[in-house]
Write a sequence for this structure.
């Protein structure tokens, strides 16, 4: 237990330790209409951006376009290589601009509705940049997404980021491996006893693994990096199926129909409701 606590503290220190680069982040929500880049900069100059105090800010489902402003300054005496990261990989469209001579210059286009950028190191959208001693850099990030706008933004030293990223990937591999072993174990039990309950108990973790892989961005990175359209359908379908199979497992394993007909009807309706979630992508309107 102490060893796990030590490792956790160690990697958090590496991740959030001062690298000599000071960072401030602010934001503004604008209606989903065309704004020129100069208008965005003008709004920033007028102080219309609000400070983003928390690392994880949830804006919910919104038709607005979210703009982030990231100010960085290298107060160290040496050049620094930094990683600008957004830690929510299911955002649809992300445009990262650098402010140069009062002009916004597009540096990178990311998002799970674009072909996966293999230079980003991790499923999380990120951008690597260098900053000289005493230099200040300003970035603007435009975010458009039909899903939930969960925004966690940070600027980290590249060495600490790479170490943290590799450790995170190892833990993810261990986690998904453990779930897969559980899946195979229950599938073997189903083949032996032919009990429908165990079939649903197998289909539930299958759906859950697909959902977790999609939510973490790992599925996009590994399986269909050239086909971002799949991401628009993956999460609601996997979530709906996971809910449906969990309810069906409950009904059959506990033999609800023989216990309470009213409860059976309620759970059956709940299974239908869960399965209807898979239809959400068909009514979703994409926004660019």
């Amino acid at each position: 237990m102490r060893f796990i606590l030590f490792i956790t503290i160690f990697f958090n220190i590496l991740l959030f330790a001062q690298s000599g680069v000071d960072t401030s982040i602010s934001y503004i929500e604008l209606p989903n209409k065309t704004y020129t880049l100069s208008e965005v900069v003008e709004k920033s100059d007028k102080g219309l951006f609000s400070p983003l105090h928390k690392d994880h800010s949830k804006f919910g489902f919104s038709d607005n376009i979210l703009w982030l402003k990231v100010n960085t300054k290298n107060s160290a005496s040496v050049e620094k290589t930094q990683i600008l990261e957004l830690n929510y990989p299911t955002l649809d469209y992300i445009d990262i601009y650098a402010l140069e001579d009062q002009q916004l210059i597009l540096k990178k286009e990311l998002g799970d509705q674009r072909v996966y950028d293999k230079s980003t190191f991790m499923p999380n959208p990120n951008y690597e940049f260098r900053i000289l001693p005493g230099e200040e850099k300003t970035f603007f990030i435009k975010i458009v997404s039909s899903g939930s706008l969960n925004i966690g933004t940070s600027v980290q030293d590249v060495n600490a980021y790479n170490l943290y990223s590799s450790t995170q990937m190892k833990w993810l591999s261990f986690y998904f491996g453990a779930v897969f072993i559980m899946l195979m174990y229950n599938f073997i039990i189903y083949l032996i006893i032919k009990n429908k309950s165990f079939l649903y108990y197998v289909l539930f973790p299958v759906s859950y693994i697909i959902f977790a892989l999609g939510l973490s961005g790992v599925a996009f990175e590994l399986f269909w990096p050239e086909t971002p359209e799949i991401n628009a359908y993956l999460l609601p379908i996997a979530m709906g199926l996971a809910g449906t199979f969990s309810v069906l497992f409950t009904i059959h394993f506990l033999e609800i129909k023989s216990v309470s007909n009213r409860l059976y009807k309620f759970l059956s309706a709940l299974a239908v409701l869960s399965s209807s979630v898979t239809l959400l992508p068909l009514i979703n309107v994409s926004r660019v």
Q: What stands out?
A: The first strand starts at residue 21 and ends at 30. The chain has nine helices and eleven strands.
